[in-house]
């Protein structure tokens, strides 16, 4: 654990990419193999299931520090991070420990489902053996809030330097459903086991946002298609394996039983990059229809009938077991269409249609109709591009529509977390409903630190009521909020919910009397295919 804490400290003290890669590469060369596997797992999002909840942690930390629970809870909003709060409250350890990261992680895994008294004893013993920096990391691992400031791509680059294995090859080997507690380092990065790799997806190619498409050059070099509003995924159909993976490397095959018939119709040895959409007749349904299925382990028959799943296929990554990713996109696309054209009608997969255009101005006019297609905008892909790993600027671009906007007034404020723990950054906003103000969304991003500091000073001077960490303020500060979509929501008092709301402007020029209304949001909801509550 000491070595892992030292690595975390090195990474936390630098913003230079080269320094982070060098520190990680050195760690991957010298750390115990089991610790390397856990580090790879943690940096690629494979965190163990939480064994202890935050209420228990606060209670046990108060007990260990000799403080009343209420005081420990009051300190948390000031520090802004529970793991850091606990590490600072605890007394100095009375013991030491040479246990490795692997040892501590296996203990955490073993605590899942155990009685509270057993978990309490184990956590108190751990706190009494770890130094303050080690406790901080241990607490982060307990709560599931571990972040190291290193992307998976950066980690893969460092691992390639340490092992001599090609970075793209490593990126593929680290995909799939593997657990750090059940695999060795050499097995993880070593040669492929065809049987074990049968269901593995490829690393996803990602696009970057573009604003000025004319700078992309000759339109003849590009393919355009709609940017669908669904779940990006890879369908794997190899001998002995049929799997659907989300972009977040989550195996979601069982969530979409209506796609299972594809196993019988698609030829083996295929991997297809696609978008999972809820389908209605001849086209996609709004994302809200698909959202009813997300998070459900079992989808009721009623929802299966109302929002059947369909795949709109973008790309063919493998055919007859041959990796096609290095071939030009135009070639891969032609092979994809040939495969799908041979399928019988009615199967839940079809190619995502290409958008024909001769010049960028025409394409801009087509893009303006994206919402009529239940799309977010357009994707632009260079016809000669390979299927690369991660986000490589230059070949794939997303040209999204401008977001929806609404002017709203702040009703409640709450302090942020981490480096913004001393600032009020999390706000609840309201719109007018007749003579009343109705809260309808929360947002916490989009402003500068300087603006957050100004707002914090204002909140402290104008607080009307406190509800724990939340403060009610006079409805005076107006903000322009941007959002990607709107849907009906019976769980909210306003009857609506926004997708990805964020603040884009502090409207110091606008009084609260001129903010938007709940009725205007209901009209937008109806116009976008929803039903007014």
TrEMBL record:
Enzyme class: ligase
PROSITE patterns in the record: DNA_LIGASE_A1 (PS00697), DNA_LIGASE_A3 (PS50160)
SUPFAM superfamilies documented for this protein: ATP-dependent DNA ligase DNA-binding domain, DNA ligase/mRNA capping enzyme, catalytic domain, Nucleic acid-binding proteins
Gene3D superfamilies in the cross-refs: DNA ligase, ATP-dependent, N-terminal domain (1.10.3260.10), DNA ligase/mRNA capping enzyme (3.30.470.30), Nucleic acid-binding proteins (2.40.50.140)
Catalyses which reaction(s): ATP + (deoxyribonucleotide)n-3'-hydroxyl + 5'-phospho-(deoxyribonucleotide)m = (deoxyribonucleotide)n+m + AMP + diphosphate
Gene name of the record: lig2
BP terms from Gene Ontology: cell division; DNA recombination; DNA repair; DNA replication
Domain ATP-dependent DNA ligase family profile residues, every copy: 302-433
Pfam families: DNA_ligase_A_C (PF04679), DNA_ligase_A_M (PF01068), DNA_ligase_A_N (PF04675)
The protein, known as: DNA ligase (ATP)
EC number: 6.5.1.1
Molecular function GO labels: ATP binding; DNA binding; DNA ligase (ATP) activity; metal ion binding
Organism: Cereibacter sphaeroides (strain ATCC 17023 / DSM 158 / JCM 6121 / CCUG 31486 / LMG 2827 / NBRC 12203 / NCIMB 8253 / ATH 2.4.1.)
Keyword terms, alphabetized: ATP-binding, Cell cycle, Cell division, DNA damage, DNA recombination, DNA repair, DNA replication, Ligase, Magnesium, Metal-binding, Nucleotide-binding
């Amino acid at each position: 654990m000491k070595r892992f804490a030292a690595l975390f400290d090195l990474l936390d003290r630098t913003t230079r990419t080269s320094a982070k890669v060098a520190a990680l590469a050195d760690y991957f060369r010298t750390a115990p193999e089991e610790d390397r596997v856990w580090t790879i797992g943690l940096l690629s999002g494979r965190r163990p299931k939480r064994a202890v909840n935050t209420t228990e942690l606060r209670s046990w930390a108060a007990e260990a520090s000799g403080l009343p629970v209420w005081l420990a809870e009051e300190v948390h909003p000031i520090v802004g991070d529970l793991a850091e709060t606990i590490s600072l409250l605890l007394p100095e350890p009375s013991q030491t420990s040479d246990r490795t990261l692997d040892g501590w992680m296996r203990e955490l895994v073993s605590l899942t489902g155990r009685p509270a008294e057993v978990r309490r004893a184990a956590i108190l013993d751990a706190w009494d053996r770890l130094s303050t920096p080690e406790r901080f990391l241990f607490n982060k691992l307990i709560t599931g809030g571990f972040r190291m400031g290193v992307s998976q791509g950066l980690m893969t680059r460092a691992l390639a330097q340490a092992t001599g294995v090609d970075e793209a090859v490593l990126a593929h080997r680290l995909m799939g459903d593997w657990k750090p507690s059940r695999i060795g380092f050499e097995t993880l990065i070593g040669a492929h086991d065809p049987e074990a790799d049968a269901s593995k997806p490829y690393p996803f190619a990602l696009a970057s946002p573009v604003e000025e498409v004319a700078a992309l050059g000759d339109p003849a070099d590009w393919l355009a298609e709609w940017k669908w509003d669904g779940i990006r995924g890879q369908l794997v159909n190899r001998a002995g394996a049929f799997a659907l993976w989300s972009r977040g490397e989550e195996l979601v095959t069982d969530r979409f039983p209506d796609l299972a018939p594809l196993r019988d119709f698609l030829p083996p040895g295929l991997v297809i990059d696609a978008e999972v959409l809820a389908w209605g007749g001849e086209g996609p349904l709004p994302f809200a229809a698909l959202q009813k299925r997300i998070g459900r382990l079992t989808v009721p028959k009623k929802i299966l009938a109302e929002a059947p799943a369909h795949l709109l296929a973008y790309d063919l990554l493998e055919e007859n077991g041959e990796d096609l990713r290095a071939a030009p996109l135009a070639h891969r696309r032609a092979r994809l269409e040939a495969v799908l054209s041979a399928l019988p009608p009615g199967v839940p997969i079809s190619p995502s249609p290409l958008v024909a255009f001769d010049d960028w101005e025409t394409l801009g006019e087509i893009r303006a109709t994206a919402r009529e297609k239940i799309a977010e905008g357009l994707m632009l892909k260079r016809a000669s591009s390979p299927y690369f790993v991660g986000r490589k600027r230059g070949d794939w671009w997303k040209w999204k529509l401008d977001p929806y906007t609404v002017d709203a007034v702040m009703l409640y404020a709450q302090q942020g977390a981490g480096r913004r723990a001393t600032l009020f950054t999390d706000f609840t906003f309201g719109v007018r409903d007749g003579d009343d103000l109705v809260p309808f969304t929360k947002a916490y991003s989009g402003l500068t630190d300087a603006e957050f500091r100004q707002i914090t000073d204002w909140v402290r001077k104008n607080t009307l009521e406190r509800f724990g960490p939340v403060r009610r303020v006079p409805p005076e500060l107006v903000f322009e909020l941007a959002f990607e979509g709107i849907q009906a929501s019976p769980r909210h008092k306003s009857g609506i919910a926004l997708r990805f709301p964020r603040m884009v402007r502090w409207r110091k020029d606008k009084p609260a009397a001129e903010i938007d209304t709940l009725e205007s949001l209901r009209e937008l909801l109806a116009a976008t295919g929803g039903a007014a509550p």
